[in-house]
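4.2 Preliminary Data

To establish feasibility before requesting continued support, the project team ran the inverse folding procedure on a target of 242 residues. The structure was first converted into the token representation described in Section 3, and no sequence information of any kind was made available to the design step. The complete token record follows.
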């Protein structure tokens, strides 16, 4: 029996990287999956099939997140799993970071995750079932220089996850978070080699993670294997900053 047989999952920011790995892994485990992404050019990575839908969606806009969830309800009849994964970086030191770069990063990560969490929870509580998985970051645990915007937003996701978990636990809706470390995706491959090497030196397992290694943990949190976990944060970091 596959772990998500008969379940319907929605994954944001799933045109590439970690989100794409999560959507693909969920589909392999039997789920129907609706993927949302801001970038319509990248959505062909996840073409519409019998079990998958791709929708253009900006997570900072509540009405677009509602439309994403409505696609899952209309085409597949439920929302059992919601993964709030969409993300951007606009790195700069505080001395040079613009207010716009601060606001954008907080909007995509924090408001986007709030939109996805509250709107999915509203659907899930009606059926007394659901699992919400929020993608935070190790930056939200330790704080990274050059990422006051990103670290603040990713730490905020942890508080949001715990508060939401308390609100919806009585409806059997679980809310958990993942803090990935250095994972090989288009986001991190854009980093200068020197920064990549510095980060690698901090990882006890001695290598970067692959998107599918985050997807495996998202699968655990999405499935009944984690039925007694809520409000938790799982670090997928190769032991970095343990
Ligand atoms: P990525 O840049 O490869 O993919 C992010 C996706 O999000 C893109 O397809 C992009 O179009 C989409 N997106 C951006 N803004 C959006 C919006 N407003 N609405 C909808 N979609 C939007 O990044 P990734 O490395 O796969 O990261 C995925 C998540 O994991 C992010 O939240 C990121 O912060 C987090 N994360 C990544 C790492 C890492 O090392 N790669 C580490 C920790 C946390």
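Position-by-position output of the design step:
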């Amino acid at each position: 029996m596959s772990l998500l047989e008969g379940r319907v999952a929605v994954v944001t920011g799933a045109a590439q990287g970690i989100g794409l790995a999560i959507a693909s892994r969920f589909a392999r485990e039997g789920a129907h999956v609706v993927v949302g992404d801001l970038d319509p050019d990248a959505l062909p990575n996840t073409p519409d099939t019998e079990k998958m839908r791709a929708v253009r969606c900006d997570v900072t806009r509540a009405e677009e997140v509602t439309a994403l969830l409505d696609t899952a309800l209309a085409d597949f009849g439920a929302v059992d799993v919601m993964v709030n994964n969409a993300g951007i970086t606009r790195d700069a030191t505080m001395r040079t970071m613009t207010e716009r770069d601060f606001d954008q990063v907080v909007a995509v990560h924090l408001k986007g995750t709030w939109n996805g969490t509250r709107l999915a929870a509203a659907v899930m509580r009606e059926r007394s079932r659901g699992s919400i998985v929020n993608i935070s970051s190790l930056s939200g645990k330790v704080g990274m220089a050059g990422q006051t915007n990103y670290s603040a937003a990713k730490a905020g996701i942890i508080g949001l996850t715990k508060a939401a978990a308390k609100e919806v636990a009585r409806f059997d809706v679980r809310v958990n978070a993942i803090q990935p470390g250095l994972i090989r995706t288009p986001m991190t491959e854009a980093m200068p080699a020197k920064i990549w090497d510095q980060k690698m030196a901090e990882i006890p397992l001695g290598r970067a993670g692959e998107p599918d290694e985050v997807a495996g943990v998202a699968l655990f949190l999405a499935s009944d294997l984690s039925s007694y976990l809520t409000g938790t944060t799982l670090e997928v970091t190769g032991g970095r900053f343990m």
